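Weekly structure sync, notes
Attendees: PL, DS, HV (note-taker this week)

Item 1: Exopolyphosphatase
DS walked through the input record. Source organism listed as Clostridium vincentii. Sequence as pasted into the shared doc:
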Amino acid sequence: MNNIAIIDIGSNSMRVVIYELSNNNSFKIIDEEKRMVRLGEYIDKDDYLSEEGINKLIISLEFFKVICRNNDVEEYIVVATEAIRRSKNQKAILDLVKEKLGLDIRILSGEEESIYGYMAVKCTIDFDNALLIDIGGSSMEISLIKDGNPENVISLPYGSIPLTKKFPFKSAATNEEKLELKEFLYKQFDKLPWLKKGMHLPVIGIGGASRAIGKIQKKSIDYPFDVLHNYSLSKDDVEDVFEKVTSLNLSDKYKVKGLPRERADIFTAPLGAINSLMSYCKSKDFIISQYGLREGVIYERVLGRDIKNLDILDYSIKRIITNQGLNKEHSDKIWRLCTLLSNKLELTNWEEKLLKAASKLHDIGVNVSIKHNYKHSFYMILNSEICGLTHIEILMVSYIIGLSGKLDMKLSSDYKSLISKDNFLICKKLSLLLVISNNLDRYFYDNLKDIEISNDSNSLTIMLPSSSVKYIEDYSGSDVKTNFKKSFDKDFIIT
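Item 1 (cont.): predicted structure, written out as tokens:
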């Protein structure tokens, strides 16, 4: 294992994220820090980063290095975007940083910035076709993704800071002001003929402005799920947030629930840009990505650039198993046993995906306590970001695991708006297969070849060696048999 620091020098903020890398290409965050330096505001009219801006850069990097030393960092990757990219004195800045701190800054092109954003999203959200928009401090990256690959990418000089300078929205906006912003953006979009190929595609938002939209909308509806990544809003939802924010003066924007205070003064114009892009391309859905440039860099570091065939869910589960120190051999056993059952019962591909995640991660709560493991697992999964699953799917996996520990567990009123009655019945059904697999492993498991399963219209029968039946017959199986009959309309028999 070794620790690596990724330092992102943005135009609005600077961040350091420290990762612990494992030998199996897994990684986890062990520390991070953010500084709102707004370097973009220190670029003068001649495109030079001022001395004050350089001092802020150096001080932040010095502090980041202290954090890195405290975490035994062995490798540094330092990247910079538009503020340094456009600075005419960038060579002097890079030389100074190298001399004072021994850090080599890699200045990313707009296209490289777009590609890293794409990699972060492609490794964490299951999609093939979409428009990506990443609004940073000084630039706006738009990418057209078709069949899982970036087909067109562009970086425009309209990040949060320059766009806000052009459209400050310090008072409640008039219809004319909102129209002026929209017309300006449409003119920029008109210069991108390939954007027409993104008509009706979902828009995936990267960066602080996109995250703020999701946070505001979630607060407005008391959304019960804390996870923000892969949160989906409708076009009407985005429009509602835009209308709400533009109706306020600057002082009132600082009071908006979900809107970070440090972003309140530079949020309205980029919000308008996202709303305008969705209108321009007639997009119905806006999806939030919690991840962007830094995550793209770490994914490239551990996986390389060829990620088209990456199984997002498999990789995410592997990372969780590694980072939580779970027994991989046991997880694989339970999944193989669940597979034997699911094949006989002819589950749908969707049900198998949920069962796979639940079976492999069902013991995550053991790290809290073996007692009531299923309760701890329920809450840990509920607050995990299992990449490749939607919020509803993560919630269902939580309930599959929870029900496997307590078959009469009820659906909380908090989540009734997210899980339908039919989906909760699916959770109950799949939890039974997890219970049966766990009991086979505990009371019998020796060799899969010694297990025979028959399935007909009346019953599912598991045939074990006679020497093993006596151990498993006495396990508390009456509830399982009763619930199996309800869920599958057939008897469950062990012989």
